[in-house]
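idk why but the lab printer keeps eating my pages so im just putting this in chat instead. protein + BIS(adenosine)-5'-pentaphosphate:
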Amino acid sequence: MGQLNLLLIGPPGSGKGTQAVRICERYSVPMISTGDILRAAVKAGSPLGRRVQAIMAAGGLVGDDLMIDLVRDRLAQPDAAAGFILDGFPRTINQARVLDDMLPGRPLLAIVLVVPAAELERRLDARRVCSQCKTLYTTGTLYGGSEEELCSKCGATLLRRDDDNLETIRARLQTYRDTSDPIIRHYQDRSSMAVIDGSQSPDQVSAAIIQAIDKSRPNDQ
Ligand code: AP5
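predcted complex ->
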């Protein structure tokens, strides 16, 4: 079977993490979320965590050298040899170019999720994450709604991410606007890319991603 080397690109709140969990289960490849790796480092108080905490809290981007080393090490692990889903990388044109060099001859499929800015703000403001099993929720009556602030899967407390306050949400959205165009052009020019309406229901978005994957690997269906 051909490899699945999938990049999930999109603004904060577009559903990259939601979809990465679903798609990695379906295709049995590891999900590599640079945001999750950084948040775990911050939580652990490691040297990496101490370096990136303030940048993340301000909604900026961690430096390319650090991120590239981190992803290079992760992709060198055996479980990524047969494919992966990258959620949150690349985020700069430099990261995109270096990723190409890291994976010579391995075809990349870039999925770009597009969602209106007002919907992104609304989702991030309402997002809660289970402190134990990391399941994502949207408070209130939105998708996956939970009024209790307790995880319906494991019963643990739901938390708001440190960068999900309105000021940082707006800074993160601006960072994406400032950096994403060259990345999208990079994949338009060099490899296969699919642009997907991320404002559909999660199931509809998953179906569109699966269709794009299967189209990119026609002999594997
Ligand atoms: P990261 O963790 O990657 O955050 P992000 O890009 O801001 O994306 P989010 O995780 O906020 O959103 P998402 O698109 O995954 O949406 P989700 O599925 O959760 O990065 C955090 C920080 O780390 C960055 O700001 C930066 O500082 C640093 N960083 C990370 N990578 C870096 C890199 N490569 N270089 C430099 N710095 C880096 O969904 C959001 C909500 O919406 C959820 O509540 C969910 O339930 C809901 N939802 C999802 N899909 C739908 C749908 N279809 N309909 C309705 N609701 C939905």
